[in-house]
Write a structure and sequence with these properties.
single chain, OB fold (Dihydrolipoamide Acetyltransferase, E2P), Chloramphenicol Acetyltransferase, nine-stranded mixed β-sheet, 17 helices, 24 strands, 30% helix, 25% strand
Length: 522
């Protein structure tokens, strides 16, 4: 067995696969041709992956009549050989890939047309990612790639992430070029080879399907991607039938929305062309003289929309609002910033003080630092505050970790760095994952007085900060008045986790820190 394992340098360093839950490798040997057929991850060979345990490899030797299976322990495999596979990693997210998130498969052709090569699939760079876009290729087709070099930039559902190469080789073929969109996780995006002389053989290579589809037995037909798209289209006969019936002397069928739009635009319904149910709304909206443009949705926009919709449909929201007098908070900021300037640090903003106050309030009322897990409520020991940042690319929520333990200067520096990376669309997964509470501030940047934010699942609360405004309030003596600055804060809560009294207790603690900010420095 050890000799068999040492036979090929292609199966070295298998421990990188065995360390993950789904890790397993299936190697096929054709006895007749004495050539290697394929090696791929268990996510590609699902039919074999179901048969293996967490840390084992199955070597399949196939003859014309039967199939012999050998089980090798991870320790034996680890000590016997290493691999020349070319795994792909994203900067800063190696932990994600250690669990088999990157789909790549090495194929060994029995013919002379396709030499040994690596089929690189679109990686899964976040728990919610199902498809991605290729922002641009950094490496050019035919070029050599070395460990640590960036191959391309992938636009995920949350950010743009650099994909790095971990071993040497040559980029033989770029299957999905710059700007390619809606590439499913696992779908082939590039081909790499080990020998420079093999590059030319992939000049006309075209990937017909994803690596998982390629590796499935021929007995399991795979529907072409184009056929699925055609099925989803509205059939033409429906539109024609609707048009004929509407132009006849019979009753004119139209929806209330169509009638209202026609009435508002002084357009007779009889002058509009009928269409299928799927396209009727679009046709009615496109009334004469009504100009419009269709803007494509980015990945971050799609995910944000789906998550917000899910939140409002599944989380029982309720809202608590409190006004805090922030004169002392403003004064403290004015005293701290000259010291920051002198030391070369970033200026402290009101939002930085709000983040610190929210973090300390969560430490005082830890029940609000929790998530609903159906069968139980998970209460977090870490206080990680997500900060909402609006950019031209969409809404991002980078995270300040352990905000309750960090000083104001550190928080100010981190927030500005994260906001800058968000605006540059260069956030990495570790920059926005793992938050336990979110702060959204529309007061300072936009002057919004008060608003209610939507809970960011799986969190149970989000704080909406409005602008500070001056108000005339009664003074100490009768008939005396003074001017004070007040800021509105609204806490949106998941009622499954945070009861009304509990949310009120948190707001009381938060207000206390804002109105007596020196307590945050203790």
């Amino acid at each position: 067995m050890a000799l068999l394992l040492r036979h090929s340098r292609k199966l070295r360093r298998v421990h990188g696969v065995l360390d993950c839950e789904r890790g397993s490798i299936a190697r096929h040997f054709s006895v007749a041709a004495a050539k290697e057929d394929a090696v791929s991850s268990s996510s590609v060979h699902g039919e074999y992956g179901k048969k293996v345990g967490r840390s084992s490899i199955f070597l399949h030797r196939q003859s014309e009549k039967d199939l012999h299976t050998f089980k090798v322990s991870s320790r034996e495999a680890r000590g016997s050989y290493s691999s020349k596979r070319m795994p792909i990693a994203a900067t800063g997210v190696n932990s994600l890939f250690s669990c088999g998130q990157v789909v790549s498969a090495r194929h060994f052709s029995s013919g002379a047309d396709l030499p040994p090569h690596e089929a690189i699939g679109m990686p899964s760079l976040s728990p919610t990612m199902t498809e991605g876009n290729i922002a641009r290729w950094v490496k050019k087709e035919g070029g050599k790639v070395s460990p640590g070099e960036v191959l391309c930039e992938v636009e995920t559902d949350k950010a743009t992430v650099e994909m790095e190469c971990m071993e040497e080789g040559y980029l033989a073929k770029i299957v999905c070029g710059d700007g390619a969109k809606e590439i499913k996780v696992g779908e082939i995006i590039a081909i790499t080879v080990e020998e420079e002389g093999d590059i030319e053989k992939f000049k006309d290579y075209k990937a017909s399907s994803s690596p998982s589809a390629e590796s499935k037995p021929q007995s399991e037909p795979v529907e072409p991607k184009e056929e699925k798209k055609e099925v989803s289209k509205a059939p033409e006969p429906t539109a024609t039938k609707t048009e004929e019936s509407s132009q006849s002397g019979d009753r004119l069928f139209s929806s209330p929305v169509a009638r209202k739009l026609a009435e508002d635009n002084n357009v007779p319904l009889s002058s509009l062309k009928a269409s299928a149910a799927k396209g009727s709304k679009k046709e009615a909206a496109a009334a004469p003289g009504l100009g419009y443009v269709d803007l494509p949705n980015t990945q971050i926009r799609k995910v944000t929309a789906n998550r917000l919709l899910q939140s409002k449909q599944t989380i029982p929201h309720y809202y608590l609002t409190v006004d805090s007098r922030v004169d002392k908070l403003i004064k403290l900021r004015s005293e701290l910033n000259p010291m920051q300037d002198a030391s070369g640090g970033k200026k402290i903003s009101i939002n930085d003080l709000v983040i610190k106050a929210a973090a300390l309030a969560l430490r005082k009322v830890p029940a609000c630092n929790s998530s609903w897990m159906n069968d139980f409520i998970r209460q977090y020991h870490n206080v990680n505050i997500n900060v909402a940042v609006q950019t031209e690319h969409g809404l991002f929520v980078p995270v300040v970790r352990d905000a309750d333990k960090k000083g104001l200067a550190t928080i100010a520096d981190e927030v500005k760095q994260l906001a800058s990376r968000a605006k540059d669309n260069s956030l990495k997964p570790e920059d926005y994952e793992g938050g336990t509470f979110t702060v959204s501030n529309l007061g300072g940047p936009f002057g919004i007085k008060q608003f209610c934010a939507i809970v960011n699942p799986p969190q149970s609360a989000i704080l909406a900060i409005g602008s500070a405004e001056k108000r005339v309030i009664p003074g100490a003596a009768e008939g005396q008045y003074e001017i004070g600055s007040f800021m509105s804060a609204t806490l949106s809560c998941d009622h499954r986790v945070i009861d009304g009294a509990m949310g009120a207790e948190w707001l009381k603690a938060f207000k206390g820190y804002l109105e007596d900010p020196t307590t945050m420095l203790l």
